[in-house]
Amino acid sequence: MKVQYKAKRNLLETILQVEILQGLALTLRKLFSRPITRQYPDEKPPMYAGFRGQHALVRDPVTNDSKCIGCMRCATVCPSRCIHIKTHPGDSGQRLIDQYAIDVLRCVFCGYCVEVCPVGAITMTEVFEYASYDREAIYFDQEILLANWDRFLEQTGYDDTYVNPFWRPRGGLESRLPAAMRRDVPADWTIEGQFVGTKIRQPPACKLITDTEAAHD
Amino acid sequence: MQILILLLQIAMLLAIVLLHVAYLTYFERKIIGHMQVRMGPMRVGWHGLLQPIADGIKSFFKEDIIPQQADKPLFLAAPIICLVTMLAALAVLPFAEGWVLADINIGLLFIFAMSSLASYGIILAGWASNSKYTFLGGMRSMAQVISYEIPMGLSLVGVMMLSGSLNLSEIVAAQGTSIFSIYLFPQIIGFFVFFIAMLAETNRVPFDLPEAETELVSGYITEYSGMRYALFFMAEYIGMMVIASIGTICFLGGWNGPFAIPFFPPFWFILKVYGFLFVFIWIRATLPRYRYDQLMALGWKLLIPLALLNIFLTGLLKVLVR
Amino acid sequence: MISQLIFLYCALVIISTALLAVRFHNPVYSVLSVLVLFFHIAGLYLLLNAEFLAAIQIIVYAGGILILYLFVLFLVNLRQEIKSQRFVAHHRLSTVISIILGLSLLAIIPYFKLGAKGNYPVARIEQLTHTKAIGMEIYSTFILPFELAGLILLIAVIGGLVLARNDKTDPADDVSDSAAPTISEVQE
User: Fold this and answer.
1) Architecture (CATH level 2) of domain C1-84
2) Same-domain status, B74 and B27
3) Domains of chain A: which residue ranges?
4) Least CB-CB distance to C52: which of B106, B120, B149?
5) What is the DSSP letter of A66?
6) B25 plus B139 within the same structural domain
């Protein structure tokens, strides 16, 4: 069987090579169109909620230190094994952090550590311009991670209720989230907005708990 | 004294041509960028105007790497052969009445000779680098140049027959008597064949098989770096300009224009050459690459018969008109 | 004087590159020395005001035929060729023979006489242009040899076509096709 992929041409069209002329006309038209290039260093890209940028440890306003409880969940879930935590037991049996470091050169920016953290201690900010000429500068220890958080709040004007939507596993219920993650969040971050895909065909069978209800739980 | 003046003229021509090469690369990137809804070079100077100079400085100071297994003398000579033959072809081009370095009687043949010698540079580069990509690129270029030199030469035979000369200045002068004082209309078939063969001879898209990036990395220049790479680049762009000048001289009436420009006689010539170069770039932004067997089929089965038909028709025309 | 110097230079280069073409172990280098030789032959033509011949010499021999030689060379495994010491078996004998041949050629030189002068002295060629002169001679005086040469080339072209022709209706294929079971038979 012979498949006819394109319309047959008549002799005149063959001689004039209309397809080539059409292509040339298209490129000539595009020559005078507006380029869509973004002149990057002069013109920054818009940031969207959920951007997985530079890592930061949230500074707890009460203790003025990181919220991390040393549960090791982030280090365990990390697929590239780039989170290094060292702890020692404290007086009342809690773990005290000796070292919390992220080797960003190995990080794959999957955001699992943020998703799995029960206290919302680690987060990913919207900062993406932190390239460096030496490796040491992008090996983040606890001080740098806390400083990242301070700088991020200062630069963007968020307060410490900043929630990266990647904390909130999509499709799940607000009540299932760890207490630290249940927050009053903008409307597009609510449960309805969190199902993967823009248009879901079937609403989920379970009762949807709205954010305000969840916050009062 | 005469020799000094001649040397001065050569230096001037060389400087102008090399400047054109530099800014041809700039405009190529700019035009293709805008055709692809991008912007092209923007960062060096106002709208990237100093980009070619930055590129030149960069390639000049880059390390010149010679592969260990390469055939060293030929590896070093290949880019020079390429460039020298192309520069030699510039000598016979008449830019305006009397604006020509060497007004020889066999100008057209001289250009053919030089363009066929330029393929030696490509072939030797391909062979001497001792790498499979360069070798395949060189082989392809060899076959392509041999195949397309024939239709190119035959397509210009019509022009030779009408003008009765091989001297480029006389060809331009002879066009004064034809329609619109250009040979484009009586030689429309010849121009069609010449145009396609011209793209193939200069290894431009859609016939850029010798340096097909998607298959052969960079074809025959894969192993070259730094200044030697730049020499190949310059040879390619000078080749484009030479062949565009030939098209202008043989089919578009050279320096003749609708009205004379005072103080700058080559105005129309340069304008026409720029038009040709724009079409080169325009086609590069539009068309995909030919497959190798399609390239050969087009050259041998379509262009050569068409060129022969053109010679026959031109002869008939000449007999009838007389 | 200057033209004699140029002739001397061209002749020297022609002889030395011809010797080099034989002496080089690497065939690609041999071909390249032949290329230089062709250039200087073209130079000799230019000295004789035969500009058309000079251009054709470069276009046809350098641009066409030598490139085909290179093409063939690249298809051969050159590394083996470069290693082999001598191409000829009886090296000493062939040296003797070529020396004798060379001496006899030298012995002939004194008997060389200039032929009769033709219709085309330098002044006439310059006035007529060389291309026109050669064209008029070929298409009038030498029309028969020219046509014969064309015929011989035509025969070569036809011969090439016959050799390269791919016979679609190969009888051997037909037999195997009819002998093989068809799809319907296999399914039964």
Assistant:
1) Up-down Bundle (1.20)
2) no
3) 55-165, 170-216
4) B106
5) B
6) no
Q: How many CB pairs under 8 A join B and C?
A: 65
Instruction: Tell me whether chains A and C touch (3+ CB pairs under 8 A).
Output: no
Domain that holds residue B9: 1-55
* Boundary-marking domain end, from B10, B31, B55: B55
Say if B321 falls within a structural domain.
Answer: no
Cis peptide before B206 (omega within 30 of 0): yes
Q: Which of these three, B13, B38, B55, is where a domain ends?
A: B55
Contact B289, B209 (CB under 8 A): yes
Distance CA B161, CA B155 (A): 11
The whole-angstrom distance between B149's CA and the closest CA on chain A is: 23
pLDDT given for residue B219 in this prediction: 78
Q: How many domains is chain B partitioned into structurally?
A: 2
Quote the DSSP letter at residue A102.
E
Residue B38 Cα, gap to closest chain A Cα (Å): 5
Q: Is residue B221 part of a domain?
A: yes
Domain layout of chain C by residue ranges: 1-84, 129-165
pTM: 0.77
Residue B322 scores a pLDDT above 80: no
Asked if residue B307 is part of any domain, the answer here is: yes
Supply φ then ψ for residue B113, to 5 degrees.
Answer: -60, -45
At a CB cut-off of 8 Å and minimum separation 6, what does C7 contact? C44, C47
Q: Is B318 exposed, middle or buried (0-12, 13-18, 19+ CB in 10 A)?
A: middle
Q: List, in order, residues 6 or more apart from A115 with CB less than 8 Å away.
A: A77, A166, A167, A169
Res A211: pLDDT: 47
Residue numbers in chain A where pLDDT is lower than 70: 1, 6, 163-176, 179-217
C-contacting chains (≥3 CB pairs under 8 Å): B
Which of B35, B42, B283 minimises the CB distance to A30? Answer: B35
Distance in angstroms (rounded) separating the CA atoms of residues A137 and A133: 8
- Tell me which amino acid residue C26 is: N
Q: What is the Cα–Cα distance from B308 to B306, expressed in whole angstroms?
A: 5
Tracing tokens 């092209």 back to the chain, one arrives at B40
Interface with chain C: mutation pick from B116, B131, B136, B167, highest number of C CBs within 10 Å: B116
Instruction: Give B264 to chain A, closest Cα distance, Å.
Output: 30
Q: What's the burial of C159, exposed, middle or buried (CB within 10 Å: 0-12/13-18/19+)?
A: exposed
Architecture of domain A55-165: 2-Layer Sandwich (3.30)
- pLDDT of residue B180 exceeding 70, the answer is no
What is the pairing mode between strands A95-103 and A83-89?
antiparallel
**H or E element that contains A31:** helix A18-31
Torsion, Cα of A6, A12, A15, A20 (10° steps): -50
- How far away is chain A from the Cα of B71, in angstroms, using its nearest Cα? 39
Cβ partners under 8 Å of residue B306, min gap 6: B151, B189, B192, B193
Residue A189 pLDDT: 56
Considering the domain architecture, whether residues B87 and B207 belong to the same structural domain is answered as yes
The torsion defined by the Cα of B226, B227, B229 and B235, in degrees rounded to 10, comes to 160
SS3 of A212, please? helix
- Chains touching chain B at 3 or more Cβ pairs under 8 angstroms? A, C
